[in-house]
Structure of Chalcone isomerase domain-containing protein:
Amino acid sequence: MHRWLLILSLLSLPVAADEASRLQQAAFAPQLQHQQTVLLRKNQSLLRYLWVDVYAAAFYSEAQVSPQRALREQRDRHLELYYFREISRDDVIKAAWVTLERQHSPQVLEPLRGELDRLHASFNDIRPGDRYGLDYSQATGLRLLRNGEVIFHSGDARLAQLYFGIWLAPEGLSDELRDALLAER
């Protein structure tokens, strides 16, 4: 029994080391200046799909605000994704809609369809090394950034909650990623 535990723990080491090197490659800042507030990196993790590293993700919120509280209370927050793979714009939009439709009824999505379509229209094909940020502030609303440049803005707090939910709400893209990003540390 102990031998199997040892073998299993040894097999998991390369994965952990690989994740650490991928997170180092993503080089998420320990803190971000966000409007007049400093946001701290609370957690970071890696999304793997079928043993392929797709992107690293980091979640930021105010110093005294947990990730769950930042979401629940619509506090200032930032989600950053650093991509390791090419992904077509159409595939990103399709994955977003599949997730949103799994999470929400048509009655919830329909009033936001115009803003969602406008947000999706700002997407480009993703290349390795691209960095996307989803940013929310009560003062300025939702912003989508690509490689540091704002490519979309909306003042609709409902849209912000919905779109952050793709990664951070139940039935999102990855339960494992969500749990890692929202963990209390």
